[in-house]
Amino acid sequence: MSCNSELGRNLEAKAKSDPSVIMSAKSMADKIPLLASRLVESHPHIAYSDHGSTVGYFKDGDFRVKSKKLEDGSIIQPTGIGRKTLLNLFSKSGYQEVTAQQAVSTFDEAPDNKRVEIATGLEAIKWRIDRLEIDLSHAKLMDPLIPAKIAFEFLACHVGLAIYGEDPELSQIRSVFRNKQMNTDIFFVERLTSNKYKPFHGIVFEGNDPYAKVQVRLFGWLAFRVHFLHLSVGGPRYAYTHRLDSGEEAVSEINA
User: Fold this and answer.
1) Letter string b/e over residues 72-85, b meaning 16 or more CB atoms within 10 A of that residue's CB
2) Would you say 11 and 218 are in contact if contact means Cβ atoms under 8 Å apart?
3) Most buried residue, 14, 94, 160, 209, by CB count within 10 Å?
4) Composition of the chain by helix, strand, coil, percent to 5
């Protein structure tokens, strides 16, 4: 079942904007810290301070606000970048090096959340971030074609090269993926949830009742049942599990 051995990594790249995926990872940060950090920190966050709120991102483990210019002409920047901006500003304005360094030192030593004058007519505030929250305002639910494609590939692991057959049913399914446009007359996807997060991803062929159904489960909580309306697959049924906490993978045969 090596065709599914990279389930977690492939889904992470394609589905990490789904708020359910993000919140699932965050909820299990104590069990899967590296994966949770990678998923959560790749997403924009809202930083809250006494000044108000602003959007920012994590980079190399450090949070950085997004630089922007406000209506009053002031600029919000990460502290490190703001320091360089000040040096460039002093240089372009003809300040002597000593004066520029003194002004930057004043900025470095300024207390948080307090407006200080670092040079004539130039003030700065080092805002302290009090709280960070994931920004889900632009998050999108996962495209159902993603779990559907994974489910179809899992069926391929059951039947081998027969998946490339010229049967009309198979050709129709492949056509949907090529066109990247869902056709619910050929297959449809149920979005399901469990009552508990668990550190695993899994896939299981649920059999033919009366047509082939495959379930793709993420973080033990979010699941997608793919109904292939005109397809039946014979032979043994299998389940695949990828443990996110240990990295272990397992394939098991399911009795009818």
Assistant:
1) eeeebbbeeebeee
2) yes
3) 14
4) 35, 30, 35
pLDDT digits (tens, 9 = 90+) for 149-188: 999 999 999 988 888 888 899 999 999 988 889 999 999 9
- CA torsion sign for 66, 67, 73, 79 is positive
Phi, psi of 216 (to 5 degrees): -110, 120
Ranges assigned E (strand) in the chain: 45-49, 52-59, 62-65, 68-69, 75-76, 116-119, 122-124, 131-134, 187-193, 200-208, 212-218, 222-228, 237-243, 249-254
- The one-letter amino acid at 157: C
Residues 6+ apart with CB under 8 A from 67: 75, 76, 77, 78, 81
Unique residue bearing structure tokens 């320091």: 83
User: Is pLDDT of 87 > 60?
Assistant: yes
* CA atoms of 179 and 59, how far apart (whole Å): 36
pLDDT over 90 (residue 29): yes
Specify the pLDDT at position 73.
81
* The one-letter amino acid at 137: S
Q: What pTM does this model have?
A: 0.78
How far is 21 from 216, CA to CA, in rounded Å? 13
Amino acid 1: pLDDT: 41
Other CB atoms closer than 10 Å to residue 168's CB: what's the count? 9
CB 159 within 8 A of CB 121: no
At residue 13 the predicted structure's pLDDT band, cuts being 50, 70 and 90, is low
For residue 153, how many other CB atoms are within 10 A of its CB? 17
pLDDT, position 6: 46
- Distance, in Å, from the CA atom of 3 to the CA atom of 21, rounded to the nearest integer, reads 22
The mean per-residue pLDDT over the stretch 207-227 comes to 96
∠ CA 190-196-197, nearest 5°, is: 90
